Protein 1
Amino acid sequence: MIRPTIFFLFFLCLNLLTRAQTKLQVEEKITHLLTTNIDAKEIKDSIALYTFSIKISLKKTKGKAMVDEISWNDPMANLIFKDINILKQVDYKVFLLNKSKTDIIIPVAYIVANYKTNDIGEKKISIIGLQESLYKLFNCTSQKNCMNDNINYLRPMIITVDKAIYD
């Protein structure tokens, strides 16, 4: 009688492990939700690169992962995505296994190909502007340290759009 019980418990555990989401699966779900939610018609293409990060603050309540807040460090996020709050649909429990609170940072770069040029027809990106843009990807500034144990950085999401009109 003990052998069938052990056999049953083994398969029950195996079944539970295969159903658990991995961080990579959650990241893929987030990427899918955001890429299907792009609506950047309002963006004026005067620069070639927009960067920002989306911060998802999580807390564990009664054993469940709850989204406490979704924020971003640049209002451009509202122009690129129709509704960032769609990210509340994701199950984030894999990020809170041994923690009661954590943050997820999603770096986003929005690259505009064939954007408007300056008066002499040159396409330029300011080096100083580029440095600040790279800091914004990770929710930092050159003066603010952004690393800590309670932050999970996902892979950067790079979006490239072409503004040229082709015949």
Note: The beta strands are 49-61, 64-72, 101-113, 151-153, 157-162.
Protein 2
Amino acid sequence: MSRTQKIRCRLMVCLTAALISACGIMGETTRSVVQLGTLPSADQHRPIVVGSVTRENGSIRLTCVGPVAAQVFTNHDQETIEDSLGMTLVAASRNMGRQSGDLIRIHLLIRKYFLGVSNSASAILTGVEWVLSGPQNEVLFHDSFYAARECHLPKFCTLGREKDAIRSAIVKRIMQKTILFATGGCPDTTDTEGTYSSLESAAAKLPKRIKGWNINESKELDLEWAEMQHPTDWHQYLSNGPHWSPTPTIDLRCE
């Protein structure tokens, strides 16, 4: 192969990779089955459905360094979390025996979603609460936690990939504890990979500031903003009926 052909081949590889990862660079997320590891062994389990995935008003914040093509959190991102919960549940149910007993519903509330991003780094911190409810909307189990993730050069980072890692951490924690409950176990609020019970523990995994490559600028990350200050009143929440945020679209972008 001539030198010219080699150069053309490399350019084609780079162009193809860029096209494949373009959505990820912008921050678009994907839906997928999350691997849960070893699950409880049981001959039967209570039926489980995903009841709702919602978000609080004012729950999104974006900090940008330099001009970056990025979105912080969209309705599509919210839908991929809900779809991934359902897909993971279906996959896990194949090995959980027969269904028996009262229905369990999963409700997830996204309370905080913070993203700091530059042309060479990203930091994500999210706070969520979730609950298992019974047939009469009674609270069976509830949990709150944070998920954190950061990436910077020379690692290969795309915003979509990092947001997907947050999605997977959220889904894994919820599904592992839900399946344990549905099979007669007693879940607790122990942290799982990528999740943290306190803001301090989650924030310790992230940088205090974010800067860009070849940009003479950096910004402090206001991680304290992501604190979930008051617990959700799940009894009121469930009695009123979970619903989507009145805000039709979250489309915060870096300038």
Note: The chain has a mean pLDDT of 85.
